[in-house]
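Input sequence (70 aa), recorded before submission:
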Amino acid sequence: MDKTQKLFSEIMKRDENEKEKILEELKELAKEYKKETKKRQVMLKRINKKLKKRFKKAVRKHSKLHRSEY
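Predicted structure, token format:
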């Protein structure tokens, strides 16, 4: 039995009032997690865009320098 199943069985043993509180906390945590992952995705996209731009620039510069060799 893994941790999540264990926690779930503990929750089911408790009374209704406590269950509701725990479920609300879990919902809040899920929202926060979703928000954080979204932020991370946006940040990674931005970084990738910058890197692609920089790489293209470097390739262009390199090909200009070595054009006579080709």
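Checked by second reader. The mean pLDDT is 86.
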